[in-house]
Every structure is written in C-alpha cells, then in structure tokens.
UniProtKB/TrEMBL annotation:
SUPFAM superfamilies, alphabetized: Clavaminate synthase-like
Organism phylogeny: Eukaryota, Viridiplantae, Streptophyta, Embryophyta, Tracheophyta
InterPro entries the UniProt entry points to: DIOX_N, IPNS-like_FE2OG_OXY, IPNS-like_sf, Oxoglu/Fe-dep_dioxygenase_dom
Keywords: Iron, Metal-binding, Oxidoreductase
Domain Fe2OG dioxygenase, chain residue ranges per copy: 189-294
Name under which the protein is recorded: 2OG-FeII_Oxy domain-containing protein/DIOX_N domain-containing protein
Length: 343
C-alpha cells in the first residue's frame, strides 16, 4: 500500500478563512468494486472531483516524470519556441498562450505547457485527420536524454489507469462495465498528456490575474498529478453569486480525477463537470494533466440510462472531433501570432 499524505505546502499554510474541499478517495486496488462504484457515483453527483490512490504507477516513476518535465521547462525560451505546438496540438505552449476565462482574465494564463498525444506516424492513415492525430513534437535526444522514453511510458501507463476509472464510471451509470472500451471510444482515444509549469507570479482574482483561468475540462475524464504546492480550486456551483471557491489539497502519490464536459453531456447533466482554476501564491508550481477523450469519430449522445420521458436529452448528439476542435479554438491563441512575432 502506497503512502498518501498531503504535501508540506498544504492547507496549513493557507489563511484560516480559506475554504478547503473534502473529496472522496477511491482505491483502484480495492477488491470491493461496489464500494468503489458508490464512492465514485457520490463524487460525480456532488462535485465531479475525487482522489485516486493505488493506481499502479509507482511513486519513483512519477518523480522521474516530474523531473523530466522540469528539465524541459528549464530550457531557454528560444529552445522551447523551436518546439512550439502545431495544428495537431502537439508541443510547447508559451506563457499567456491560453485564456480559459476571457470574461474575468486580464491576460492569458500565467503558465507554460507541453502537449503530448497518442503517437501516430506521418504515414499512418489516422494522421490525415485534421486535428489531434499525428506525430508528436519531441525535443532532441541530445538536448533532453530519456525524455521521450519517459513521457511515452507515462502516457501508456496513464491510459490504462484512465480505462480502469472509465469502467467504474460505466457501472456507476448502470452501463456494461466495458461500455467505454469500444474502439470508437477508448479503444482509439484522443488521449493527451500535458505538462504544466506555473511561474511564481502571484495570482489576484480581483485584478483578473490567474495561473489558470476558471474552466471545465473538455473531454471524458482528467487525471491530474501535482507537486506539493497548493493552487487548484473548484467551484461546486457555478451559478452561486458570488461564486464560492475551495482549494483541493495535493495528495502525495494520488491522482486528482475530474469529469469533463463530454461526460456531462453523455450523462444528461447527472454527473458534473465542475468549474476549476489555479490560483498561484508566488511559488513555482508543476503539474501533469492527462486528458482522455473518445475517438475522433465518436458520436456523443445521451446515454440510454440517463434519459426518460420526464428527463429528455438536454443536448443534441455531436461528433467528438467537432466538439473538441471548437473548444480548442476558443481557448488557444492563433498560431499565426507566433509567426508574426518571428518575422
């Protein structure tokens, strides 16, 4: 059994008036599947966030992934810009590239990131699809030795964790356990690893300054690993005025899992995709997000167990590629901006 403790920069360092969220903790190694389903269902109905422990990825390997992530972000800006994200959403995203809450943000997010997707060679027919499929952008091996191997391994292991979580979600929605294992869903997923680095700039919501603006995730589920620096906040009810934000403390060795908008659509809003943001306290912060969506051509429509005569579908069916493409366009800077800067 792994040791799971809150980090040294946890809630004890926050002001006494700070609200802290208490999340359910699901043990992926537990033989009691009924308890796991019950805990997950309660979390999905309540706030859409939970901790996942004993997920099978070792603590030592997680430390290696974080170390390799820091090596990437410690490169010079010139070196990182040579790895700039492409139109397949692979590669480096600079500070302020993304603006997730334009109504409340003065600037973009004070974070830099790096996208790594499922590797699809250029000569593979899948690579011809317009978005999300294709080869990754990899740093040169002499610049960052072992980097590609480490990230590829983590990507593969995290996908297996996500599939295990999806099976519990299936049961919580009264579906067959392998509902999300189909080829058109997680059999050929759009799974994206994103490394994140928040610089030390202090966030100030009153002035529209955020490490990461308020948003809900786009897809099915997200697995989030963080360092020990507190920063993630969730808002359980986005319609409450003023909105009430609660910190989610890091839990060493655990993933923080949250549901995405696509699962909320699938479940006819029974399960919640919750608003969240990152408020930085002046310390550098690193996190690793793993976003899991169904395949490019998957049709997302209300699940049969989530609709009735009294509760008809709230959303029309939509192809995964259509939905994701629009969400990415809405939140990321146009790549032409960087072309103009370099001329």
């Amino acid at each position: 059994m792994e040791n799971h403790q809150q980090g040294k920069n946890d809630v004890a360092a926050l002001p006494a008036s700070t609200k802290v969220s208490v999340l359910n903790c699901i043990d992926l190694s537990s033989p009691d599947i009924h308890q796991s389903v019950s805990l997950l269902k309660q979390a999905c109905l309540d706030c859409g966030f939970f901790y996942l422990v004993n997920h099978g990825i070792s603590g030592e390997f997680m430390e290696e992934v974080f170390d390799q992530s820091k090596r990437l972000f410690n490169l010079s800006l010139d070196d990182k810009m040579k790895l700039l994200r492409n139109d397949k959403h692979r590669g480096y995203t600079p500070l302020l590239d993304e603006i997730l809450d334009p109504q409340n943000q003065l600037y973009g997010d004070y974070k830099e990131g790096y996208y790594i997707g499922v590797e699809v060679p250029e000569d593979d027919p899948q690579a011809e699809k317009p978005f999300f499929y294709g080869p990754n952008v990899w740093p040169a091996a002499d610049l960052l030795p072992k980097w590609r191997e480490t990230m590829t391994q983590f990507h593969q292991e995290a996908l297996e964790v996500a599939k295990a979580v999806a099976r519990i979600i299936s049961l919580a929605l009264d579906l067959d356990v392998d509902f999300f294992d189909k080829p058109e869903m997680l059999g050929e997923p759009i799974a994206t690893l994103r490394l994140l680095h928040y610089e030390g700039r202090i966030s100030d919501p009153m002035k529209g300054l955020y490490g990461c603006g308020a948003h809900s995730d786009f897809g099915l589920i997200t697995l989030l690993a963080t360092d020990e620096v507190v920063g993630l906040q969730i808002c359980k009810d986005r319609d409450t005025k003023p909105q009430i934000w609660e910190y989610v403390p890091p839990l060493k060795g655990a993933f923080i899992v949250n549901l995405g908008d696509m699962l909320e659509r699938w479940s006819n809003c029974i399960f919640k995709s919750t608003l969240h943001r990152v408020v930085v306290n002046g310390q550098e912060r690193y996190s690793i997000a793993y976003f899991v969506e169904p395949s490019h051509d998957c049709l997302v429509e209300c699940l049969p167990t989530c609709k009735s005569e009294k509760n008809p579908p709230k959303f029309p069916p939509i192809k995964c590629r259509t939905y994701l493409t629009q969400r990415y366009k809405d939140t990321h800077a146009d790549l032409n901006v960087y072309s103009k800067q370099q001329t």
